[in-house]
Every structure is written in C-alpha cells, then in structure tokens.
Design brief:
In chain A, strand 1 and strand 2 form a beta hairpin. Helices cover about 35% and strands about 25% of the residues of chain A. Chain A is built from 8 helices and 10 strands. By secondary structure, chain B is of the alpha+beta class. In chain B, helix 1 crosses helix 14. The chains are: A alpha/beta, B alpha+beta. Chains A and B meet through helix 3, helix 4 and helix 5 of A and helix 1, helix 13 and helix 19 of B.
C-alpha cells in the first residue's frame, strides 16, 4: 500500500511549471523501460441485469505504449466502451488488473483513483458532456477546479485561465470563451471537450467515439486535431470507435468481439 | 472551487429552487414576526406589571398589618442589604369606590393601596403611569394637552393648578345650585385639613379623632376614629357652607387618591372621526367616596371622601380597573392602623396625635439593584420573616400563572411555526432529489474529471446551505422590515379589508408592541439553515453514490 502510493507520487510530480503542449508531456514521467504505458491484464467484467449476469469482457489483455495512438473497434456490445472505462478507472474489473507503467492501479483507494483520473487521464465522449451551466472556458477549467482547493485555485486563477485560453485557441475556439455549450455546434463542443481533457496535462487521452455524433467533415477535423496532438506532444491516445475509417487513422487497432480480443492490429 | 461555482450556477438557473427559498423565507419571516410581536406583548405586559409591583414584596399575613415598618426595613437591610436598592412600606386593603357621573352613582370594587409617593417611585415607575406626566395625544398624533409635570419630578399629592381651578369652579357651581343641600355628597366638601398648607400632612386638628381616651391596642375598634373623622368632615362642610372666608374651595381634601383609569373612564367612538376616545367620569380635582374596613376585630366599615389628584394608567386593565393609590398616612389613620399608646398627646386638644403614633403596614415593596439576585434575596427574607405571618414573593411569583400561560403559549406557537420550516425542508428534499436525477450525467462527468464522492456530496450540501442561507437571510430581512413597520402594515390592512385588525379598545395599546430579540432571530435563521442542510443530506448521498459509468450512459 505504502509502496504503491510512493510509486503513485512519483507519477504525479508537480508539473504546473511545464508550459502547455510545448514540451513533450512524457519527458517528465519516470521512464520505466520495457513496461507499457497502460495495460489491461486479463480483465473480466460482467454487468447485472436483474437476475442475469451479462458478461461484457471475458478476459482481455491489451497494452498501450507511450505516445501511441490506439483505436479499439468492435460492434455494439462487444465491450469496447467497457474496456475504455476500465482503463480510465471509471469502473473496476471483476478480475484482472489495470496497470500504469506496470503498477496496478485498479485497486487503489478511491481518492487515489480520483486523483489519477484528474491528473493522468483525459476523457472525451461521444456526446461531449460539457456542463450546461458553465461557459466554455469554465468547462475547460473544471478539471483544474477539481484539482486545486478553492484557495489554491484563486491564487493561480490568472495563470490557469491563461492556460485554458491558450488551449481553447489551439483547438480553434478562442472566440467562444464565454459562450454556453448550448450555443455551440457539435464540432465546437467536441473541441471544447478536448480542451477540457487536455487542460490538466494528462498522459493518456481516452476518447469514446469522439466522432460518433459528428458529420464526416467535422469528424475529420477532430481526428486531425487528435493526430496532431499525438504527434506533437507524444500524448498516448486510446480511442473507441465503431467506424473502421476512423479507426484506421490510429497507429494500431484493437478489435473486440463478444468481449474478447479478435485480432491484434500491426504494432506501431 | 467547482462546488461553489456549480452551486452558484444551480442557485441562479434553477427556478424550482426559488420555490424552496421562498418557503424557507416565509417560514423564517413568520417566525420572526410572530415571535417579535409575542415578545412585544409579553415584554410590555411584564414592564407594566413590574412597573406597578416592586421586584419583591413582603406581605403581612393579616389585613391589620404589622407595626414598625422601620424595624422591618432594618431587618431586610441586615439580611440582604447589598442587593436592595429601595424599599417602600404600603398598606393594601380591599374597598369600594363610589362616584357620581351624570347623576348616577357608580360603585366599583377596588384595591386601595396606601403609598408614600417618594419611596414608592423609587421602588417602581410610578410617575410614568400618572396622567399628569403624560402628553395627551390624539390618535392622529396631535398634542391635545402637554404633560403637566416632568418625568423627573417626584410624584406627590398636590393638585395641579389646572385642576384646582376645576375644583373651584365646581364648588361655585354647586353653591349656586345648592346641590350640597340636596345631600349630594360627591360635590366638594371643602378642605378638611389646614387649607393653606399644601403638604400632604396627617389629619389636622379638625379631622383628628376626638377620642384620645381610646388609647388601647391597635386592634381595638378603630371605627370611632373614622366616625369622628367623618363627623369632622361633616362639621367642616357646614363650616364651608357658612362661607368661611378662610377656606379656599380649591383646596383638596386631606385624603387624596390616584384613581386607576379603568375605574373612572370608558371608551367611545367619535361619530365623525371614528376615533376611539376615552371619556373620564372623574377628573382630578373631583371628590370620590371610598369605603373600606378598619383594622381591628371585628373590622368595621368606614367610608370617607377623597380628592382625586391624578389618574393612573398602566395599560394593564387588571390594575387600571382595580387600583386606587391613596396617601399612606391618611389611610393608616382612617383605618386605625396606628398605636395610640405610642403617640404623643396633642397639647391643644388633649388627645393622642396620630401623626406621632407608630403605624402599621401590610406590605413592604422592595426594589433590587439587580433583579437576577431575586431568588437569593427571597430565600434570605423567607428565613428572616416567619412564613405564617409574612409572605415573601417576587413580582413574577405574584403574577405566576399569567406569565406562565404566556410562556407556554409562545412555546407552542414556536413549535408549530417551526413545523412550517420543517415542511419547507421536505420541499427542499423533494426538489433536490429531482435535481440529482436531472444532473446524473453532470455528476458522472465530474467524477470522470476526478471529482471525489465527497466533493459531489458537498456540491449538494453547499447548495442546500446556499438555499437555507439565502432563504433565511431574505426571510430575516423581510421579517424585521415587517416588524419595524407592523403598525403601518396594520393600518394598511385595516384600510384594505375594512376590518380593524388591531383594535386598541381590546388591547389597551395605541400600537402593536414589538420586541426583537437578537438571539431569537439568530436561532430562527440558524434553525432554518440547518433544516435546509439536513434536507439535502439524503440527495447529496445519493449523488455521491452514483456510479460514473451508469451516470454517463447515453441512453
């Protein structure tokens, strides 16, 4: 327990000083040679529906290296979203482990998992999931608000706002800072969601059907943005999609069917 | 940070929350208003009662009274001197007041209290309740008569010049109409005591009991004295009728009284202005008849005339309709409450001069320096004065049942009103469950972004606190504004509904009395806030337990 926490602290060294998106994000992480960045080891997961136990994942092994762009594809119900949730600690596996640099993270105490979600993972969703009461910039700032106490946030407010603004400009929303999500188009909302996922300077971006609700052209724009991020900052990206065309843009594709790995795509 | 931001946004954007704010607000405002008005009535009542009764009273067991007030007071001083600010011996006795108004005789049962105004006004706020000290105003606020005396002037038994004039006029009228001959005794009898001497002195030579041979015990029938006194009065009347130039008809009798306003007045409504006015049947300067019993066995009835010097109005109908304050020395003499054996013999008449005799009293009123010590003082006095012969009570004990009834009433009312706020709490509970369901997805997102379960719970707790805070603040302000303007609101309501909401004929108050206790306001506001927070505990727990994946399901 203590050892694990010690390892965790190492991965969570202060990184506020690193300016956004300029330096390689992973440079400051402890290099653990030969270990995948994030891995699922023999994970199983079943959901209960009334009396029935519905298995969703039946022992999946998957791993992602640093800076890799991996897509997970499969039909509806193949368990690809569940795998993503397990990797992102939104849910815990019934059996099996989730490892970050070889350290098991799925059995950490709730507060440590909350912290990991806040600092190590960034999420984007099919339906963007912006908070409707908050403006675009407030939405983008929300992970930072969660990270810092009220006092600390107020002290750094200016700096953090500048970060969020820069990021929004980077995703092309510099002119929409104070708009409410309801005033944005789908593409703009997804860009705002990406900005929100990135503002905490995560190591791994988990995207659940990021283009699923967008038209083809906007979807392409989003994919371009993701590929750019992956290329420029060595951000590890795991993307769930059912669209083969979108999946093909990733470095590697993991195929799921009936809760099992189907084939391994060619390694990056 | 996100908690505060989200709370603030939820407060601003959720109009349903406004409903719970309003219910909290109304509850708080109602509680403050009702409590303030009840406290106002209670405080007013207490000050009025307290203003007439002293802090502590020692009553002798018998109506004959106990002798030697000085020695009693000395003993009190010895026992609890450090707490005592002032003392006043008095005589309390039941009696009958008779006066004539528009040709009819009115008789009222009264309590006659013989007081020494100087010491009595140190013991309680006597002058505040005397009409001579008050500016008479109409309800519209016009001054009808300025105060005849300043409040710092110690009350005495002098007749104000205005009323002397009234008395003189009356005497002239009567003489002209020969009413005196018709046996109307309510008219002025002329002064009985040394007319030019204005100090309230003891019965003078004429009124003195002729019988100094009756130098027996004080419980010997004293009726002779009183009879003699009346004879003397009658004799004087004759003297006056013979137009004794020495006698000023404006001089009051030696027995002088402050009459309770309720005894000699009635309220009526002016036809034109609809204003409620008070009509006095007896004015200062008029004479009234008093009947009571003498000290002694068996007690004899006596009756005598007395000049009303002032009218006493405390606002407590119980007192205003019952009390007649009289000069103590006269009452003692008339009731035979003196010990002739202790007196000196008047060289002129060869009789015992009652002025020099030891007097009896029935009650000693005590004012304390600090009323908080009342209990200890009462305990000590009870030890010093044997319980059979004396009773020692605080004014609160004397008025115990009334004060207790008010306290119970206000406690019950408070419980009922607090239920209103509790109902508002259930409203918050229901609305919050709704909001949690509505915000399920947002909760999931916040969890995905790293918010802890406690963080999510605290959003809703803070939200509840926010509602409670806003509700009780607005409610407190609304309640206080209402209380401060309650009389304006009352007038406006009366005008709107055509019903007099606050009838000053019933309540004896010109306006609705209010008394705001800061602690009461604080507790009401705090109670409302804690109910709001408590009501949000369950929804907050539910929100905290939401599973992020379930919360994020798209369907």
């Amino acid at each position: 327990m203590l050892e694990r926490n010690a390892g965790l602290e190492k991965t969570m060294e202060p990184r506020e000083s690193v300016s956004l998106l300029s330096a390689p994000l992973l440079a400051r992480l402890p290099p653990v040679e030969g270990r995948p960045h994030l891995a699922a080891v023999a994970v199983e997961k079943a959901y209960r529906k009334g009396e029935h136990r519905i298995p969703v994942l039946r022992g999946v092994n998957a791993s992602v290296s640093k800076g890799e762009f991996v897509s997970i594809v499969g039909q509806s119900g193949s368990g690809k979203s569940t795998l993503l949730h397990l990797l992102g600690l939104l849910d815990g596996p019934d059996t099996g482990e989730v490892r970050l640099y070889g350290k098991r993270i799925d059995d950490l105490p709730a507060s440590a998992r909350d912290e990991l979600r806040n600092r190590t993972f960034g999420f984007i969703f099919q339906f963007y999931h912006l908070l409707p009461e908050l403006s675009v910039i407030e939405n983008v700032l929300s992970p930072l608000m969660i990270r810092y106490s009220t006092l600390a946030y107020w002290r750094k407010k200016r700096e953090l706002q500048a970060q969020a603004k820069a990021l929004l400009e980077r995703v092309g929303l510099g002119h929409r800072l104070t708009h409410k999500p309801s005033e944005l188009s789908g593409g703009e909302m997804q860009r705002a969601a990406i900005a929100r996922a990135l503002v905490g300077q995560p190591e791994i971006l988990l995207a659940d059907e990021p283009t699923g609700n967008l038209d083809a052209a906007t979807g392409r724009e989003i994919m371009t943005l993701l590929k750019e991020l992956n290329a420029q900052t060595a951000l590890t990206i795991i993307m769930v999609t059912h669209d083969e065309g979108v999946a093909a843009q990733a470095d590697r594709t993991i195929r799921l069917a009936e809760g099992r790995l189907e084939t391994l795509g060619e390694a990056a | 940070m996100y908690k505060l931001l989200l709370c603030q946004r939820y407060l601003r954007t959720r109009f349903i929350a406004l409903a719970s704010i309003i219910s909290v607000m109304l509850g708080v405002a109602t509680m403050i208003v009702v409590n303030s008005v009840m406290a106002g009535f209670a405080t007013e009542m207490r000050t009025r009662i307290h203003g007439i009764l002293a802090d502590i009273v020692i009553e002798s067991g018998t109506l004959d009274g106990a002798f030697n007030a000085e020695r009693h007071m000395q003993k009190i001083e010895e026992v609890a001197g450090e707490h005592i600010a002032a003392m006043s011996p008095t005589v309390e006795i039941y009696g009958m007041l008779s006066f004539q108004y528009v040709g009819e005789w009115f008789h009222k049962p009264v309590t006659i209290i013989g007081i020494d105004p100087v010491s009595k006004s140190k013991v309680s706020d006597l002058s505040q309740h005397l009409m001579n000290y008050q500016t008479v105003k109409s309800k519209s606020g016009n001054v009808e008569r300025a105060a005849l005396r300043m409040l710092d002037q110690v009350p005495d038994w002098e007749l104000e010049p205005e009323f002397r004039e009234h008395r003189r006029m009356r005497a002239q009228q009567r003489r002209m109409l020969h009413l005196d001959e018709a046996g109307d005794e309510s008219g002025p009898f002329g002064p009985t005591a040394a007319p030019k001497n204005a100090t309230p002195e003891l019965v003078d030579a004429e009124a003195k009991p002729k019988d100094n041979g009756d130098a027996g015990l004080p419980d010997a029938p004293a009726s002779d004295n009183a009879d003699d006194l009346l004879n003397a009065l009658d004799a004087h009347q004759i003297a006056k009728q013979s137009d004794d130039p020495e006698v000023d008809p404006a001089d009051p009798l030696s027995a002088r009284v402050y009459l309770g306003a309720g005894l000699v007045s009635f309220l009526y409504e002016e036809r034109e202005s609809k204003e409620v006015r008070m009509q006095y049947m007896v004015q200062p300067g008029d004479d009234v008849k008093l009947s009571t019993v003498t000290a002694g066995r068996p007690p004899d009835a006596i009756h005598f005339n007395a000049t009303a010097v002032d009218v006493f109005k405390s606002g407590m109908s119980e007192y205003d309709g019952n009390l007649v304050f009289m000069n103590l020395d006269q009452l003692q003499v008339l009731r035979g409450m003196y010990d002739p054996s202790s007196g000196q013999i008047d060289p002129k008449t060869g009789k015992v001069d009652p002025a020099t005799c030891a007097r009896a009293f029935t009650t000693i009123q005590i004012r304390l320096k600090d009323y908080r010590h009342a209990r200890t003082v009462v305990e000590r006095l009870k030890g010093a004065f044997p319980p059979g012969l004396y009773s020692v009570r605080t004014w609160e004990e004397k008025q115990g049942p009334l004060l207790e009834a008010v306290a119970v009433e206000s406690a019950i009312l408070n419980v009922l009103l607090f239920l209103i706020i509790a109902v508002a709490g259930f409203g918050i509970l229901a609305i919050f469950f709704m909001i949690v369901v509505e915000k399920t997805r947002d909760i999931g997102i916040l969890k995905a972004l790293g918010a802890s379960s406690n963080g999510i719970a605290s959003i809703f707790l803070t939200y509840g606190l926010g509602l409670g805070l806003v509700g009780s603040c607005v409610g407190t302000v609304a309640g206080l504004v209402f209380v401060w303007n309650i009389n304006t609101i009352e007038k406006w309501l009366s005008w709107l509904t055509g019903i007099e909401v606050f009838n000053d004929r019933i309540y004896y108050f010109q306006e609705i009395p209010t008394h705001i206790e800061p602690m009461m306001v604080f507790w009401v506001a705090l109670g409302a806030m804690s109910i709001a927070v408590l009501a949000s505990v369950l929804p907050a727990r539910r929100a905290a337990r939401l599973h992020p994946v379930q919360a994020l399901r798209y369907e």
